[in-house]
């Protein structure tokens, strides 16, 4: 019986990649052994491009997928990040793979922690549930579920600002002030 497993699993099972091992049957009454063939199996997810060309920082991108320069002006930290992102990869995920730290929380497009304002360029964000269609039309986006469609320049936003823009009209009292004592009590319950 041949068993094909990914190279990482093979490394952990065999301790040596791409070799043949003979593994005794777990059933003591059976006298035959099973052949385990370790082969490299290339897998890709639907949204991530397969390994192809490397950029100057060593990141692998497929030559068939367009890649765009993304510039993120991080207002909270006072830094500017420039990096390349393939059209089929999330901006936040690609930044993290290049050791770039950007604000985030949920990674699913449901909050506003990674919210940015688009200064130039375009991006797709079909899964951005954390911001309304109205804010999207005003140029707001979420990096965790955003795909670049062109070279892009964005600026991070304060999460409370975006939250207020989205929900402020529903609260007649003005912006919500942070209550550290209530937060401390809530964290103690966890």
From TrEMBL:
GO annotations of cellular component type? chloroplast
- A family per Pfam: Fer2
Q: Which GO terms describe its molecular function?
A: 2 iron, 2 sulfur cluster binding; metal ion binding
Domain 2Fe-2S ferredoxin-type span(s) in chain numbering: 68-160
Q: Does the keyword Metal-binding apply?
A: yes
Q: Where in the cell is it found?
A: Plastid, Chloroplast
**CDD domains the UniProt entry points to:** fer2
Query: What does the similarity note say?
Result: Belongs to the 2Fe2S plant-type ferredoxin family.
This chain's protein is named: 2Fe-2S ferredoxin-type domain-containing protein
Write down the species.
Answer: Salix brachista
């Amino acid at each position: 019986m041949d068993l094909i497993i990914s190279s990482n699993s093979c490394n952990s099972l065999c301790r040596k990649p791409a070799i043949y091992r003979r593994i005794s049957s777990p059933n003591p009454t059976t006298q035959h052994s099973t052949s385990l063939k370790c082969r490299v199996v290339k897998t890709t997810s639907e949204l991530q491009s397969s390994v192809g060309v490397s950029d100057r920082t060593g990141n692998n991108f497929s030559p068939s997928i367009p890649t765009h320069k993304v510039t993120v002006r991080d207002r909270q930290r006072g830094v500017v990040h420039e990096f390349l992102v393939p059209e089929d990869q999330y901006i936040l995920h690609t930044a993290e793979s290049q050791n770039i730290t950007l604000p985030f929380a949920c990674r699913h497009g449901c909050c506003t922690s990674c919210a940015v304002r688009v200064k130039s360029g375009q991006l797709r964000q079909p899964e951005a549930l954390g911001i309304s269609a109205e804010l999207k039309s005003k140029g707001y986006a979420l990096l965790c579920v955003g795909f670049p469609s062109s070279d892009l320049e964005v600026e991070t936003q304060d999460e409370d600002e975006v939250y207020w823009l989205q929900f402020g009209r529903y609260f007649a009292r003005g912006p919500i002030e942070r209550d550290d004592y209530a937060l401390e009590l809530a964290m103690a319950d966890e």
